[in-house]
Amino acid sequence: MTDLIVWTWDWVPNGPRGHVRDIRLRWALEEAGLPYLVRTMPIANRGADHLARQPFAQVPFLQDGDIRLFESGACLLHIAGKSEALMPRDPEGQADTLQWVIAGLNSVEMVTVPWWFIGLKKPPENPLDGWMGQRLQRLQDVLAARDWLAAGRFTVADILMADILRVPALRRQLGPYPALQAYLDRILARPAFAKVLQDQLDHFAAADAARAAT
C-alpha cells in the first residue's frame, strides 16, 4: 500500500480536462516510478475538510503518509526529493533544478495565466502580449542552446515548464519560437506524459458515467 495520494476533483467540465494540475504530480510520480493513488474532492462542495488541506479550495494537493502539501510547485519539489530521476543529488544540480521550478512558477506562469484569462474575453488587443512575448523570447534564447532547463538533463523543472507551455492558446503562440516548440514537443512525447494525460481524461470520463447513472 502506497503512502502517496494525489488529490484532484471528482469531476470537471470538458474544457479543463487534460489540464487540471494534478496531472503535474501524476507525471512526476510516473517518471520517478513511485506508486501512488488518486483520490477526489467534490468540486461542487468545497467544505471545511477541503479547506483544511488546501486553504484556497483548489487542487491538487498531495498526501505522503503524515505529510500534506498543497500547491503544485511544492508538491513537485517534494516528489523530486524522493527520486534522482527528477532532481540530481549534487548541490549544484539541485540548485539549478530548484531555480528553474521557481522560474516556471514566477517568471512564466505568472504572465501566461493572466494573459490566457484576458484572452478568453477576446479583446481587440491583449495588454499582456508584449510581456508574455518577452518572457517566451528569453526562454527561447535559453533553450536554443540546450535540450533541458536544468542540470543538463530532464528534471522536474521540465515537467512544470512543459505543463505551463502546453495550454492550447499559448501553444498556438509558439511559432516564432522554434527552440521552444521543439522543447515542448520533445517533452510531451515522453511515455509518462501520454499515460497520465489519458489517465486524467479517463478519470473524468468515469465521473461522467457516474453522474449519468444517478
Number of strands: 4
**Backbone shape:** globular
Strand content: 5-15%
Helix content: 55-70%
Radius of gyration: 18 Å
Question: Structural class, please?
Answer: alpha+beta
Q: Uncertain runs with pLDDT below 50, 5 residues or more?
A: none
Q: How do the helices and strands follow one another from N- to C-terminus?
A: EHEHEEHHHHHHH
Q: On the 0-100 scale, what is the average pLDDT?
A: 97
CATH class of the largest domain: Alpha Beta
- Individual helix count: 9
Q: Give the CATH H-level superfamily of the largest domain.
A: Glutaredoxin
Q: Going across the major beta sheet, what is the strand order?
A: 2-1-3-4
Q: What is the count of distinct domains?
A: 2
CATH fold group of the largest domain: Glutaredoxin
Descriptive account of the structure:
By secondary structure, this protein is of the alpha+beta class. The chain folds into two domains: 4-84 and 192-213, Glutaredoxin (3-Layer(aba) Sandwich), CATH 3.40.30.10; 91-189, Glutathione S-transferase Yfyf (Class Pi), Chain A, domain 2. It is 56% helix and 9% strand. The protein has helices spanning 22-32, 48-53, 72-80, 91-120, 129-143, 156-165, 168-171, 178-188, 191-213, and strands at residues 4-9, 37-41, 61-64, 67-70. A four-stranded mixed sheet has the order 2-1-3-4, with helices on one face. A hairpin with a 2-residue loop joins strand 3 (61-64) and strand 4. The longest helix is centred in the middle third of the chain and has 30 residues, at 91-120. The radius of gyration is 18 Å and the shape is globular.
